[in-house]
Structures are given as structure tokens and as C-alpha cells.
Design goal:
This protein is mainly beta. It contains one helix and twelve strands, in the order E-E-E-E-E-H-E-E-E-E-E-E-E. The strands form two sheets. A six-stranded antiparallel beta barrel has the order 1-2-5-4-3-6. The longest helix has 5 residues.
């Protein structure tokens, strides 16, 4: 299981006092209100000092990053939180990061491929599955298609329809 989760990507600076714009990659954008610390992809720890919101972006300031020059050093970096600081899950929910690499089967038990990635779309998320021949197909993340997800076994069962493969 993953021990850290990506919650955003620093896209640009904001002003001259070290603030940065973050594109959130988390389901709950307000999770940044409760964020105390996070980590860059290289493991550098950052402590949040302030958060604001503008349209679909999060504007963050961090302790020790006080100038535009400081902020430019962390541009295009991904931001992570540790599992223990992640948003708690409700019954039946799972973190997508925990099922990347899962074997995907149809309802008859035939292996279709491996869950490689996911896309966030306007309507619903989509899982990207790659088969043994290297071909990809997409599965909408809705109950009609996703029949069972076993995080412990890294296994998913989907309902297949004509044309999906």
C-alpha cells in the first residue's frame, strides 16, 4: 500500500511574497484548510502558513518560502501527504493509489489486464487498464462497471460491455 498520496501540483508563483498556485489532485479541495504539513516529491517537508482559494486553484504559502525567488525553486513539483494525514475514508471507499497495479478481471474470471492509471473527467473518473498485448482500454468508475474492488488482493472485477475492449 502507498504510504503517501499526491494532493496537488505547484503550477506557478502568486505575487512576490512566496505564495504558489496549486492545481489540486485531491477529491476534496477544502482538505487544504486542515493541511499542516506536506512533502515535495523529493521528500522536502513544507509547513503551510496560509491557504486561499481562487476558482479551481489553491493558493498556498509555506514557512520559509517568503520571496518569489524561493517560490520559483518549487515550481512544477508535486505535493504529497502521508497516509496518516490523508482524508479518512468511509465504509467501502479506497484510495486510488492503493489499487494502481491491480489485476482486472471480467465477471467470468478472465484476466483483462492491469490497472495502470486513472483520469479525472467532468462526469466521473475513468480507470485505464492495459492488457498483456500493451493495448489500453478505459473503464468508467461507476457502479454499473466496477463490480468489486479488493484492495488487499489488488484485484478488481468489472462488467464488460460490447466495444469496451
Amino acid at each position: 500500500m502507498e504510504d503517501r498520496f499526491r494532493i496537488g501540483i505547484i503550477t506557478s508563483t502568486h505575487g512576490i511574497k512566496g505564495e504558489v498556485k496549486v492545481f489540486p489532485t485531491t477529491e476534496d479541495i477544502k482538505r487544504f484548510d486542515h493541511l499542516e504539513k506536506c512533502f515535495l516529491e523529493d521528500g522536502t517537508e513544507l509547513k503551510k502558513s496560509n491557504v486561499k482559494y481562487f476558482k479551481n486553484m489553491v493558493i498556498l504559502s509555506f514557512e520559509g518560502i517568503d520571496t518569489i525567488e524561493d517560490a520559483e525553486k518549487i515550481l512544477k513539483k508535486e505535493i504529497y501527504v502521508l497516509r496518516e494525514d490523508a482524508i479518512p475514508l468511509s465504509e467501502g471507499e479506497y484510495y486510488v493509489a492503493d489499487i494502481i497495479g491491480a489485476d482486472v478481471f471480467d465477471e467470468e474470471g478472465n484476466k483483462l489486464g492491469v490497472l495502470e492509471d486513472y483520469l479525472e473527467t467532468g462526469a466521473n473518473d475513468v480507470y485505464i487498464v492495459k492488457n498483456d498485448q500493451g493495448k489500453e482500454f478505459m473503464v468508467p468508475v461507476v457502479p454499473f462497471f466496477i463490480k468489486k474492488v479488493d484492495v488487499e488482493e489488488k484485484k478488481m472485477i468489472i462488467h464488460l460491455i460490447d466495444g469496451m475492449l
